[in-house]
């Protein structure tokens, strides 16, 4: 199984194409980090005394959209899996207590929704990325 999802050709990619794909990978990683950190800090968002699960919407959109963008832009299945890995690392760090005992993602229902929806989106997109079922989304 090849890591590259673009059709194979006999010629090597040009320098400009290499720069575009490398820049795309950097943008994907930065967007994944930004979405993960923003989502983690938006978990306890309250409006008029009620929790608003905006973080779950952000994480589902990012964990579905960024792998699709990576497959289209970078043409690499490995890069398409990176947003899920970044989200998982940020969640692990955000659930660990700091020196004063505080945590970013506390034990409340929006946190549970955030964690379950993010994990589900990563599982679905990871499976579809590895199996290669997303080719119709990345057509030339």
TrEMBL record:
Transmembrane segment boundaries: 24-45, 51-71, 78-96, 108-130
Record key words, sorted: Membrane, Transmembrane, Transmembrane helix
Record's protein name: Uncharacterized protein
